[in-house]
Structures are given as structure tokens and as C-alpha cells.
Amino acid sequence: MSQTAAKPLASDFLSRFERQLHLAFEDPRHAGKQPEVLLEACRHVSFAGGKRMRPLLVDHFGAALDLPEDARIRLAITAELIHTASLLHDDVVDEGTTRRGKPTANARWNNSVAVLGGDLMLCIALEQLEDYPREVTFEAVTLVAEMTRAAMREVDARQDSTWTLPEWEAIAHGKTGALLAFCGTASARVAGRTELIERLGQCGHHLGLAFQITDDLIDVVGHPIDIGKDRLADLRNKNPSFPIALARSSNEDFRRALDELWQRDDLSEDDVQRFGAWIVELGCADKTLATVEDHLDRAMDALGPFAHGPGGEHIAEWAAQLRAQARWSLESQ
Questions:
Q1: If you average pLDDT over residues 249-253, what whole number do you get?
Q2: Any idea what the CATH number is for the domain that residue 214 is in?
Q3: For residues 156 and 333, which has the higher predicted lDDT (pLDDT)?
């Protein structure tokens, strides 16, 4: 599940975050230790130009809770490194060779370096939480387990075309929603605002699903701005996506035809384009947009009065941008 949709608003926080992320890799517990290639692989993928969506979201939640910046930065590093470690592992599973315009770690070195570098990165991520209540670390460990299970479910779905809409939702939550939920719940725990844990977790969860579903929508209908990947890549690569899941669940002819198509090794471009048009004709693009808007509405309901204050106003503006992008992608097809 790739991501091409909008991100939270950038801030000066990011420059300080980048400095602290560099320092995390220079920690004496890791710097200079052999084999150095593992840390080199961590740096290679961590500074390859990602969107920093998760650190920004932590900053915005933290600002809403008046969380000190040091705590925000440490939580942001945890969230970003958990995400980045998952990319190292995903590239091995997917046999990927490029990411963000650069060779993947497995392509530059080998699978062993990528897998073990990802493991080291998870350790560095959890070390950031050592000064906070143990519940925060426990939650981060639970998050990694959930993301791992979701990644395995995604692999299984690619190999077995019988996956359903609930299966897609489970994958999307584990791959995207759970980590954005952590950005909210961990911020609330560290701030001592236990009464807000569930609310901010729900906000992050629904933002994550809206983000992923918008990305899936853009893959089907395209966008006047370069989306950074080939249109209909999910159909072409047999990836689970929300519009495809909708079409499969709502039309038996589509489901049977797609199952037959995905059993073939020689998908033609004409077939891919035909099925993409079929998804739109079934009204699944419109229903996908409606689902994006529903998740954004739920996210804003969960954010509540914070949407009008420091940090929260940035989350609300990001949600508005994401809503506009989803609408634009459909209206401009």
C-alpha cells in the first residue's frame, strides 16, 4: 500500500526533528559498533527524503496537548523509525529495488542487511521511550506486532484473490491506521491526559484510513498532478485496494472476471485499463470518495474542540486538504 496523498502542514519542528534523528544514530550504544553496515542501511533509508507525515502528526497532537518539544521529538522519532523499519522489511518481501528515487537497502547491499537493519532500527525506536511510562513502550511493541501481522495478510492477499472488503480494512488499519493512531495515543499518554487516549487514537486511525483510501482512489482515477507512480498500479500488481474491494464485493461478474485475470501471469495493459474503467462504471470511485469523507468527518469529530487550537488546527487543515485532493482527483478524471 503506497502513499501519494497529502501530508500534514510542515513546521520548524521538522528541522529540529532531523537533527535529533541524526543524533539517535550517533548514540554510543550503536555508533561505531560492528558491523557498521547495519547503521549505514538505517541512515540510507531514514534520510532518503520521506514526507515525515508521522513526525508532523506527533508534533500537532503534542502541540494540542501542550507537550514539551523534547517529548514530541522523541515520540516522533519512534513513530518515524517504526514506519521506516517496516519499509526496509517490505522491500525485502516485495523484492523492491528503488524507493524514493534511490536504491533500496536490499538492492544496495542484500536482504540480510535490510532485514537486520530494520530490526536495529526498531530497537533505536523503542529506546526513545525509556524515560516515559512503560505503557507507552508496551503500546509501541503492540503496534509493531499489529503492523507485522497486517504485512503478512497483505502478502497472503496478493497470492489469493479471494480477499474481501473486511480483509482490506484489517490490512489498512495495521499498515497505516494503527501507526497514525499511535501518534495520538502515545502523545496523550506522555502528556498524562489518559482521558484523551481513545479520542486522539480514533482521530489518528480515521486520518490514516482516509489517507490510504485517498491514495487508492488516486490510483484508479488519476490526478492532474503527477501522482508519483503509474496509474492502476494496484490492479497491475494485484495489490489489495479499497476501490477494487468495493467492486469485488458489489458485483459478482467483476469478482469472477478479476479472479480469472489475476490468475494469469501475462496481464495486458488493455486488460488493466478495462478493469479500471469497470471500477468507475460500477460507481466504486464515487463510493470510495464518500468513504474518505466519512473517515475525515469521524477524525474531526474525535479531534473535537482541539481542531480550533494550537496543533489541532493544523490537523484540521490537513484533513481539509486531503478532502479537497480526494474530490479533485475524482472531478478531474
A1: 93
A2: 1.10.600.10
A3: 156
